[in-house]
Amino acid sequence: MAMVGAANSAGAWGVTVTSLWPIGTALGLLAVAAWRSPRSASVRYRAARSTAPPVEQRDISRRLTTFLILTIGALAASLALALGVRLLFQTAGNSDADANAAMLLLLPVLWAILTFVLLILTSRKQQFGVLAACLACVIPALG
Questions:
Q1: How many angstroms separate the CA atoms of 104 and 78, rounded?
Q2: 40 SS3 class
Q3: What angle is formed at CA 94 by the lines to CA 136 and CA 100, rounded to 5 degrees?
């Protein structure tokens, strides 16, 4: 509700300033949790305890594919979604500056959400389907 009110009263600048409060609160909570966390075991003890299984070539290619999907694919898809939001802002009569600020504010948020969604999907077919659906949002902006 605060974001909606800030957007209505001050545009993208209001949303940006309003978002600083939850970000600062999250940073404070993380600092308290880090301060209270127990000390970790020594590096030598952890190294002796963990024995990693050998990595096969198939595992490396599967992991590399996942990395590429989550970095390049999710970035392109979140950029497409952010461009779609920018187009919606412009067609709603907002200024170019507000539309650009909204796009730049939403891009990392959408990228994080999309990365999470792609990680919980169980097949590559589902992952590529989500990416294609997100990339379809940029089609109206091209015309």
A1: 11
A2: coil
A3: 60
Which residues fall within 8 angstroms of residue 121, CB to CB, at 6 or more apart?
127, 130
Token pair for 143: 């015309």
pLDDT digits 0-9 by tens, 132-141: 998 887 787 7
> Is the pTM higher than 0.70?
no
- For the record, the structure tokens of 98 come out as 């507000």
C-beta of residue 81 within 8 angstroms of C-beta of residue 134: yes
In SS3 terms, 87-123 reads as HHHHHCCCCHHHHHHHHHHHHHHHHHHHHHHHHHCCC
Q: Which two tokens stand for residue 136?
A: 């379809």
Quote helix, strand, coil % in the chain, to nearest 5: 85, 0, 15
> Which tops the pLDDT comparison, 118 or 46?
118
The mean pLDDT value of the chain amounts to 85
Q: Is the dihedral of CA 99, 81, 75, 72 positive or negative?
A: negative
User: Around Cβ 37, how many Cβ atoms within 10 Å?
Assistant: 8
